[in-house]
C-alpha cells in the first residue's frame, strides 16, 4: 500500500531541491513522493507506474509474471518517477536516509529533463495522471455496458499504437512550426515584389518597393491600394490564391486517427463508443513516446546530476564506500550490451569536456595534426552551459549521432563485440569485432526505438490500404496477422498492407550479408491472411 513520505524524509527532499536549483536545474516547487514496497512495484510496473492508468487484462497477466520472477529473483528497485503535474515519484520503503539523498538528486534530474527537453513539450500543459483517471472511469463504465468487447477494442488498438504520429503531434504543439498565411498587403510587399520576374536587378526592385510604400501611405484604404496594384499586376489575385493553397497544408493523421474518422463500422451508432476507447489508447501512446525516444539522454542526465550533487553534499560523510558501490552498479559500462545510465552519463561528461576546452569548435575540428589536437585546450569553462543546451534540444538519435565520435569511443575503450560457436568445446566465444566509432554508433542505433513508418493510402471500396515506408528494417512477421486482424475488425472490411521482405540473403566473404528486397502485399479478409509478391 503506497503512502506519502514522512516529514523527516520530505525535509531531505526539500534540501535536495534547493541545491539542485542552485546548480541550475528547473524543478517545480510542488512534487509528490510516495513510499512503496517491492511487491507494490510489481503491481504498478505493468501500468508503467501510472496508478490511474486504465485497467486491462494483460496488466493482470504481467503482474502474475512479475510476482513469479520476484519469488525466484528478488530485486530492490530504488525509485521511479513519472512525468505528471505535479511530478510523482516512488521510493523503496527500506532506503536509508543517505541513499535517499542520492536518489532524490537522480529524480530531480529526471524532473528537470521532463520540464526542459523539447521532445516533451506536448506533455507540459496538462496532468496526465488526472487525465488517466478520467479515462479509467470512462473505460470502466463502458466495460459495465459492453463487457469483454471493450478489451477487444483495447487490444486491437494497442496492436498499432506504435504507429501514432508523434512527430505531427509535436509540431502541432509548437506554434513556431505552424505555417501562417500572410494577408494580401503583406504578401504583396514581402513575397510578390521580392520575387517578381520583371525586375532585372536589385536596384530596380528596391526603387519599385519604395515607390509602392509611398503609394500605400498616400492611398485612403487598403481596397483602393489593392485596386491600384491590380491595375499594374492583374495576376496578383491568382498568385495570392495559389500561395494560400500552398501554405494551408492538410493535417496528417496516423492509422488510428484515420480509422476513427473514416471507419463505417465505427460510425454506426451501436459501435461509436469504440472511438472513445481508441482515443484513450492513442493518447496514452503519444504521452510515452518522448520517454521512449530519450531513454539514454534522460537516464544519463539524471545519473550525471546524482553523482555531481551527491559528491558535494555533506550528508555523504561516512557513506562514501556505500555510495561508490551502488553508483558503480548503476553507472558501470558493460563490455557487452548497453547500459543507458552509464552511456548517457559518460556522454554528458564528454560533452562538458568539449565545452570546457572548446573542442567542439570549428577551430579544433579543422586541425589535422594529432599532436596539436591532443594539446588543444582553450579553457573556456562553458561546459556546463553546453550540456544544458544539449539537454534541451536533442533526442537519443541526434545525441548519439552527434557526440559518439572516435575520441569518445577511444577514451572510454568502447568496442563492438560479437561471438562465434566453438564447436569443439560447445561454448560461445566472444571477441572484439570493431573499435571504430561508426560501427559502435551503428550498434547503438540498432538498439534504439524505431517503430515502422506506416501511412494510410486513401481507402477505396475495396478496403483500407496501408503502406509501409521501408527504411531497411522489415516488419516482424509474427505480429502482422494479429495486428491486421484487429484493424480489419475496427475498419469493418478488408485491409491491405504493402511492405518489403527479404527475397534473397547472400553471405559475402568479409562476413557481411547482402540482402535483396522485394515488395510484398498482405491482405486480411474475413479473418484470413494472404501474402503475395508484387511485380
From TrEMBL:
Annotated InterPro entries: Spore_V_R (IPR007390), SpoVR_N (IPR056174)
Domain SpoVR protein-like N-terminal stretches: 12-443
Pfam families in the cross-refs: SpoVR
Top-rank lineage group of the source organism: Bacteria
Name of the protein described by the UniProt record: SpoVR family protein
Organism (species): Candidatus Falkowbacteria bacterium RIFOXYA2_FULL_47_19
Amino acid at each position: 500500500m503506497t503512502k506519502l513520505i514522512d516529514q523527516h524524509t520530505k525535509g531531505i527532499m526539500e534540501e535536495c531541491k534547493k541545491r539542485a536549483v542552485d546548480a541550475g536545474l528547473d524543478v517545480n516547487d510542488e512534487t509528490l513522493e510516495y513510499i512503496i514496497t517491492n511487491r507494490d512495484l510489481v503491481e504498478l510496473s505493468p501500468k508503467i507506474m501510472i496508478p490511474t492508468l486504465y485497467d486491462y487484462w494483460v496488466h493482470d497477466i504481467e503482474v502474475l509474471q512479475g510476482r513469479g520472477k520476484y519469488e525466484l529473483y528478488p530485486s530492490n528497485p530504488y525509485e521511479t518517477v513519472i512525468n505528471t503535474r505535479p511530478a510523482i515519484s516512488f521510493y523503496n520503503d527500506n532506503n536509508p536516509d543517505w541513499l535517499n539523498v542520492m536518489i532524490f538528486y537522480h529524480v530531480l534530474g529526471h524532473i528537470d529533463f521532463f520540464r526542459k527537453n523539447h521532445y516533451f513539450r506536448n506533455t507540459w500543459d496538462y496532468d496526465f495522471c488526472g487525465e488517466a483517471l478520467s479515462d479509467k472511469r470512462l473505460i470502466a463504465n463502458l466495460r459495465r455496458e459492453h463487457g469483454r468487447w471493450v478489451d477487444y477494442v483495447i487490444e486491437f488498438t494497442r496492436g498499432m499504437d506504435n504507429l501514432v504520429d508523434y512527430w505531427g503531434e509535436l509540431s502541432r504543439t509548437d506554434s513556431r512550426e505552424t505555417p501562417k498565411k500572410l494577408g494580401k498587403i503583406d504578401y504583396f510587399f514581402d513575397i510578390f515584389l521580392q520575387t517578381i520576374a520583371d525586375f532585372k536587378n536589385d536596384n530596380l526592385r528596391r526603387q519599385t518597393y519604395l515607390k509602392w510604400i509611398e503609394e500605400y501611405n498616400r492611398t485612403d484604404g487598403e481596397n483602393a491600394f489593392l485596386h491600384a496594384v491590380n491595375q499594374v499586376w492583374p495576376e496578383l489575385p491568382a498568385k495570392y490564391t495559389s500561395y494560400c493553397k500552398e501554405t494551408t497544408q492538410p493535417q496528417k493523421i496516423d492509422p488510428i486517427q484515420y480509422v476513427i474518422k473514416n471507419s463505417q463500422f465505427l460510425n454506426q451508432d451501436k459501435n461509436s463508443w469504440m472511438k472513445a476507447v481508441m482515443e484513450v489508447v492513442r493518447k496514452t501512446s503519444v504521452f510515452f513516446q518522448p520517454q521512449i525516444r530519450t531513454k539514454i539522454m534522460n537516464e544519463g542526465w539524471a545519473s550525471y546530476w546524482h553523482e555531481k550533487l551527491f559528491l558535494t553534499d555533506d550528508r555523504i560523510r561516512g557513506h562514501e564506500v556505500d555510495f561508490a558501490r551502488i553508483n558503480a552498479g548503476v553507472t558501470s559500462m558493460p563490455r557487452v550490451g548497453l547500459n543507458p545510465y552509464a552511456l548517457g552519463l559518460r556522454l554528458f561528461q564528454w560533452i562538458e569536456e568539449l565545452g570546457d576546452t572548446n573542442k567542439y569548435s570549428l577551430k579544433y575540428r579543422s586541425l589535422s595534426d594529432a599532436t596539436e589536437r591532443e594539446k588543444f585546450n582553450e579553457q573556456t569553462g562553458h561546459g556546463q552551459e553546453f550540456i544544458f543546451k544539449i539537454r534541451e534540444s536533442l533526442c537519443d538519435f541526434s545525441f548519439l549521432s552527434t557526440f559518439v565520435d572516435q575520441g569518445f569511443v577511444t577514451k572510454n575503450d568502447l568496442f563492438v563485440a560479437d561471438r562465434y560457436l566453438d564447436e569443439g568445446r560447445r561454448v560461445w566465444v566472444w571477441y572484439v569485432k570493431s573499435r571504430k566509432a561508426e560501427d559502435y554508433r551503428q550498434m547503438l542505433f540498432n538498439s534504439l526505438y524505431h517503430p515502422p513508418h506506416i501511412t494510410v493510402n486513401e481507402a477505396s471500396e475495396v478496403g483500407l490500404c496501408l503502406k509501409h515506408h521501408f527504411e531497411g528494417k522489415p516488419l516482424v512477421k509474427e505480429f502482422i496477422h494479429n495486428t491486421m486482424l484487429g484493424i480489419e475488425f475496427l475498419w469493418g472490411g478488408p485491409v491491405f498492407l504493402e511492405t518489403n521482405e527479404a527475397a534473397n540473403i547472400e553471405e559475402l566473404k568479409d562476413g557481411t550479408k547482402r540482402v535483396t528486397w522485394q515488395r510484398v502485399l498482405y491482405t486480411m479478409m474475413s479473418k484470413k491472411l494472404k501474402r503475395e509478391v508484387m511485380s
